[in-house]
Design brief:
The chain is an alpha/beta fold. It is 21% helix and 19% strand. The protein has nine helices and 24 strands. The longest helix is centred in the middle third of the chain and has 17 residues. The structure holds acarbose derived hexasaccharide.
Length: 512
């Protein structure tokens, strides 16, 4: 009996590690702060045709509306109810998006904020995204409803009521994260309300959740909620599919709470990945690309089947959360293309690509004074649509990294090489490296300050391939460099350190 329960629990957990991505696709894109109507269009016109597997959307729950600073992006991390209306759109727009993306085989993953409600200083009134009334001071949220009984304050043992020391696991879980009213997830009632919220989204057709601030929730409480979740809807997913769960836990070491405590429930965000990859590509601390021969678990990262990986995220691209200065973002576009290219070529983890908006970055003494700035918006605070330029880039301050040719083509590369082993490694003991994925793909990087000029075993079948970084296959023709692979599998590569993008990638479907 005991064994049976163990197997059942373990099996359930592992099931929640599967993103249920369709059609051999592999990658999730975070369309940070996009409107539902734009995401629906993007699924149809761009994501499905270019092999993207899923979208992480911004929190859809009703949130506080803040005016000082003016409409920061982070107001959406302060729910005031689970009604589905936000700056991204209302419930029917959300439903339409989920359906249209599912129809073209693109999954939707919801950013679920369930650890807390708004900040304790949020006042009271109807300054909320759907106009629902709440009182932060009285801890009343009638839209759920939650009352003061449903919060953790009686358990918290710090004098401020906030988390003061990450070295104390109890306060990290029982006190307020940056003053956000901390829900008592040990209560059956609260678990039920959270599960109802997530189940509503599951029934609408989403494929899973990025669960916000999991470090601040007890794994046992999360387990209880997870046990109440419905299977994914049979309209879009195989019978019995569990929702994909990836938990935001920032574990860079040095704290009592570790990622490991959360592996049974689903995947976990591997924050070490972007910190280290940034350090390597920036060549800081004596790091070299050649040291990444054993990238992945060999670098002390969590087990492959638990990891959700990314180069940057919506927090650490602007100095929030953790990661620090090594994080590579769109502000360093040449490095970003290389780092994302490396991540997508490498077999470790489930990969997520960041898609950002631009803001007026203003760094004073290492801190961005404008780290709060919300998405491109009109004077009345409503979010602007994402216009598409004739060259396929985005306008109006939307960066759309996922549309950059090099990144989009590496998303396709990852799909083409899916399931193939990491193979044919080469390095120059410095910052020039190459590796393949069985006989399906090969990638070469030159991050040294001199040219790369070398003949390498690609493991691929003979023929002429189109480099998908400097260009791509366009009908029968190649708009970029051509790489000639001999019958022996060897090919000659020449990459100048001053090339626009000093890396080359070929795959089975870029053969001419
Ligand atoms: C805003 C205001 C606050 C105000 C609050 C309420 O900024 O001043 O008090 O409203 O009125 C986002 C924003 C917040 C915003 C919040 C609510 O980032 O600025 O607060 O919305 O609107 C911790 C959590 C992690 C969290 C991260 C930001 O563990 O879960 O902080 N991320 C998620 C979301 C994020 C969101 C929330 C959670 C809240 O992705 O967007 O906040 O819903 C250490 C700990 C980490 C901790 C960081 C930052 O990190 O380990 O767990 O993250 O500190 O406090 C080295 C260490 C590294 C350490 C780091 C920084 O790198 O190795 O471990 O230093 O000290």
């Amino acid at each position: 009996m005991r064994l049976f329960i163990l197997v059942a629990v373990f099996g359930l957990g592992l099931a929640q590690h599967n993103p249920h991505i369709k059609h051999g696709r592999t990658t999730i894109v975070h369309l940070f702060e996009w409107r539902w109507a734009d995401i629906a269009e993007e699924c149809e016109r761009f994501l499905a045709p270019n092999g993207f597997g899923g979208v992480q959307i911004s929190p859809p729950s009703e949130n506080i509306v803040l005016s000082s600073p003016w409409r920061p992006w982070w107001e959406r991390y302060q729910p005031i109810s689970y009604n589905l209306c936000s700056r991204s759109g209302n419930e029917s727009e959300l439903r339409d998006m989920i359906t249209r993306c599912n129809k073209v085989g693109v999954n939707i993953y919801v950013d679920a904020v369930i650890n807390h409600m708004c900040g304790a200083g949020g006042g009271e009134g109807t300054h909320s995204s759907c106009g629902g009334w709440f009182s932060a001071s009285r801890k009343e949220f009638p839209g759920v409803p939650y009352s003061h009984w449903d919060f953790n304050d009686n358990k918290c043992r710090t004098s401020s009521g906030n988390i003061e020391n990450y070295g104390d696991a109890n306060q990290v879980r029982d006190c307020r994260l940056v003053s956000l009213l901390d829900l008592a997830l040990e209560k059956d009632y609260v678990r039920g309300k959270v599960a109802d919220y997530l189940n509503k989204l599951i029934d609408m057709g989403v494929a899973g959740f990025r669960v916000d601030a999991c470090k601040h929730m007890w794994p046992g409480d999360l387990d209880a909620v997870s046990g109440r979740l419905h299977n994914l809807t049979a309209t879009w997913f195989p019978n019995g599919s569990r929702p994909f769960i990836y938990q935001e836990v920032i574990d860079l070491g040095g704290e009592p709470i570790t990622s490991r405590e959360y592996f049974a429930l689903g995947r976990v965000t591997e924050f070490k990945y972007g910190v280290k990859l940034g350090t390597v590509f920036r060549k800081w601390n004596g790091e070299k690309l050649s040291y990444t021969k054993n990238w992945g678990e060999g670098w002390g990262f969590m087990p492959n089947d638990s990891a959700l990986v990314f180069v940057d995220n919506h927090d650490n691209q602007r100095g929030h959360g953790a990661g620090g200065a090594s994080i590579v973002t769109f502000w360093d576009s040449r490095l970003l293309k290389m780092a994302v290219g490396y991540m997508l070529a490498h077999p470790y983890g489930v990969t997520r690509v960041m898609s950002s908006f631009r803001w007026n970055r203003n760094i004073v003494n290492g801190k961005d004074q404008n780290d709060w700035m919300g998405p491109p918006s009109y004077g009345n605070g409503s979010t602007k649509p994402v216009p598409i330029n004739p060259d396929q880039t985005c306008g109006d301050g939307w960066v759309c990294e996922h549309r950059w040719r090099q990144i989009k083509n590496m998303v396709i590369f990852r799909n083409v090489v899916n399931g193939q082993p990491h193979s044919n490694w080469w390095d120059n003991n410095g910052n020039q490296v190459a590796f393949g994925r069985g006989n399906r793909g090969f990638i070469v990087f030159n991050n040294d300050d001199w040219d790369l000029d070398v003949t390498l075993n690609t493991g691929m079948t003979g023929g002429t391939y189109c480099d998908v970084i400097s260009g791509q296959k366009d009908g029968g023709r190649c708009t970029g460099k051509q790489i000639h692979v001999g019958d022996s599998g060897y090919a000659h590569f020449r990459i100048s350190n001053i090339d626009e993008d000093p890396f080359v990638a070929i795959h089975a479907e870029s053969k001419l």
